[in-house]
C-alpha cells in the first residue's frame, strides 16, 4: 500500500506552494488543483484519502465541491481551508460533509497535526458493496469497526470518518450517555479548540441519515451532558 493521497484544491500559489512542499516532505502523495470542477473529477476517479479544500475557488464555491464529492460517495477526510470568518461559515461547511475547518492564516504545524489525526481515524474507505451472505439477519443495525462500515439490515449506511467515529463510540455503550467533552476529545483530539457546533453538525447529519435509512436506533440528546444511542421508539 502506497502513501496516503492528499488532494490540495487551492488557487493561491502563495498558500499552495509551501503546503505542497510540507506535505511531500511528510511522505504524502500530493496532487494540486486550482479549480473545483477538475478536483471533483479526480476524486471520482478514486484513490484520494484526504481533501484539503479552499472555499474561494475561481470556478465554483468550495462548499459545492464538498457537497458534490460527498454526494458522489467520497468517504475520505475533508478539511476546509478558508479566509472567511464567522461561525456561520464554519457550521455551513461542516453541514456539507467536511470533517474539519481551518481559518487562514493557519500554522502548517497545526494543519499537519489535523491531517495526521484525520488520516489515522479514517483511512481509505471502499465504495459501498453488498454485505456478505453471512451477515447476521438478526442484527439490523451493525457497526463493523475493523472495516469501518455501518449496516442497516442489508444496506450500508454511508458515513464520513467523523460520523463513523461518533456513531461507533455511542454504539459501544448502548443506552449510556457519551459526554460532549469525550466525543470532542476522542473523535477530534484533545487539542481541539474549535466550536462545539462542529460536533452538533456531525450529530445532526447522523440523525438524519439514521432516519432516512429507517434505522432501529436513534441518537438522543441529554441536555448539557452529551448523547446516547437507544432503540427507536
UniProtKB/TrEMBL annotation:
<protein>
    <submittedName>
        <fullName>Response regulator transcription factor</fullName>
    </submittedName>
</protein>
<dbReference type="InterPro" id="IPR001789">
    <property type="entry name" value="Sig_transdc_resp-reg_receiver"/>
</dbReference>
<keyword id="KW-0597">Phosphoprotein</keyword>
<dbReference type="InterPro" id="IPR036388">
    <property type="entry name" value="WH-like_DNA-bd_sf"/>
</dbReference>
<feature type="DNA-binding region" description="OmpR/PhoB-type">
    <location>
        <begin position="133"/>
        <end position="231"/>
    </location>
</feature>
<keyword id="KW-0902">Two-component regulatory system</keyword>
<keyword id="KW-0238">DNA-binding</keyword>
<dbReference type="InterPro" id="IPR001867">
    <property type="entry name" value="OmpR/PhoB-type_DNA-bd"/>
</dbReference>
<feature type="modified residue" description="4-aspartylphosphate">
    <location>
        <position position="54"/>
    </location>
</feature>
<dbReference type="Pfam" id="PF00072">
    <property type="entry name" value="Response_reg"/>
</dbReference>
<dbReference type="Pfam" id="PF00486">
    <property type="entry name" value="Trans_reg_C"/>
</dbReference>
<dbReference type="InterPro" id="IPR011006">
    <property type="entry name" value="CheY-like_superfamily"/>
</dbReference>
<feature type="domain" description="OmpR/PhoB-type">
    <location>
        <begin position="133"/>
        <end position="231"/>
    </location>
</feature>
<dbReference type="InterPro" id="IPR016032">
    <property type="entry name" value="Sig_transdc_resp-reg_C-effctor"/>
</dbReference>
<dbReference type="InterPro" id="IPR039420">
    <property type="entry name" value="WalR-like"/>
</dbReference>
<feature type="domain" description="Response regulatory">
    <location>
        <begin position="5"/>
        <end position="119"/>
    </location>
</feature>
